[in-house]
Amino acid sequence: MPVDYEINAHKYWNDFYKIHENGFFKDRHWLFTEFPELAPSQNQNPLIGLLVENKSEIPQSGSCEDGPRLRIEEQHKCSLNSLSHETQMPPVEENVTKKLSQLEICADEFPGSSATYRILEVGCGVGNTVFPILQTNNDPGLFVYCCDFSPTAIELVQTNSEYDPSRCFAFVHDLCDEDKSYPVPTDSLDIIVLIFVLSAIVPDKMQKAIDRLSRLLKPGGMMLLRDYGRYDMAQLRFKKGQCLSGNFYVRGDGTRVYFFTQDELDTLFTTAGLEKVQNLVDRRLQVNRGKQLTMYRVWIQCKYRKPLLSNAS
């Protein structure tokens, strides 16, 4: 039976969105309180602050952490490489280019390639995170990518009146598919958002999924997560027979959910080479006065950053 839920996972989520469309989840306007990195004032390359901290390692004369300058420098480097004769770079520029080699996205065109600040939301559903970002953040350098397992969900995003292809690119993607690449180069994203999505996949596939996402982050880029914590009310309400494996359950509609501990998430992110910025438990008592229900919620919120420079450099 667990195999069926894995093989037909896309069907269960597609059915979920066909039934609920965009009426199940509410837009997450709390995003900017919990994750100010998504707010307009944060739309600068996260390398700026980190490079200041590491300025003893990177010469100031190569201040290519600024988006537009970096693109010009990269285009210049690409054009040099295309010449039949070799041209020596000045030592300072060569040093900076070597230090920030992960940022090179030469000539390849991809959606949002001219943007200076790129956000990817994985498991976007019908856009309850993406659209608040696009509505709130009017930075012309911003580009938002969003993907979901369900073609139905992506169709609902693309047909939403707020969807603007010049600022957003929605695509179908299976987080667990190792053979399918993302439509962006490695080291190109400033922020990756995972909100109640990692818990929906089989636990033994989580590490590889995070590893692949980590490679997409720029040095200094951040992965933001909010998901279900161990002993959340939703876990305690599952009935006998709904547990597929340790802390991994199937709902009545066939979709699945895992309930994390802080240590489990820390291991996933640090194994992928990221550094902890935040890892906290958010416990809340919710009261539904209409149904006379008191609900004890447990969520975990994480922020993990990709190191600016490798330890070897």
UniProtKB/TrEMBL annotation:
<dbReference type="GO" id="GO:0008033">
    <property type="term" value="P:tRNA processing"/>
</dbReference>
<dbReference type="GO" id="GO:0005737">
    <property type="term" value="C:cytoplasm"/>
</dbReference>
<dbReference type="InterPro" id="IPR029063">
    <property type="entry name" value="SAM-dependent_MTases_sf"/>
</dbReference>
<protein>
    <recommendedName>
        <fullName>tRNA N(3)-cytidine methyltransferase</fullName>
        <ecNumber>2.1.1.-</ecNumber>
    </recommendedName>
</protein>
<keyword id="KW-0808">Transferase</keyword>
<keyword id="KW-0963">Cytoplasm</keyword>
<keyword id="KW-0819">tRNA processing</keyword>
<dbReference type="GO" id="GO:0032259">
    <property type="term" value="P:methylation"/>
</dbReference>
<keyword id="KW-0489">Methyltransferase</keyword>
<feature type="domain" description="Methyltransferase type 12">
    <location>
        <begin position="120"/>
        <end position="222"/>
    </location>
</feature>
<dbReference type="Pfam" id="PF08242">
    <property type="entry name" value="Methyltransf_12"/>
</dbReference>
<comment type="function">
    <text>S-adenosyl-L-methionine-dependent methyltransferase.</text>
</comment>
<comment type="similarity">
    <text>Belongs to the methyltransferase superfamily. METL family.</text>
</comment>
<keyword id="KW-0949">S-adenosyl-L-methionine</keyword>
<dbReference type="InterPro" id="IPR013217">
    <property type="entry name" value="Methyltransf_12"/>
</dbReference>
<dbReference type="InterPro" id="IPR026113">
    <property type="entry name" value="METTL2/6/8-like"/>
</dbReference>
<dbReference type="GO" id="GO:0052735">
    <property type="term" value="F:tRNA (cytidine-3-)-methyltransferase activity"/>
</dbReference>
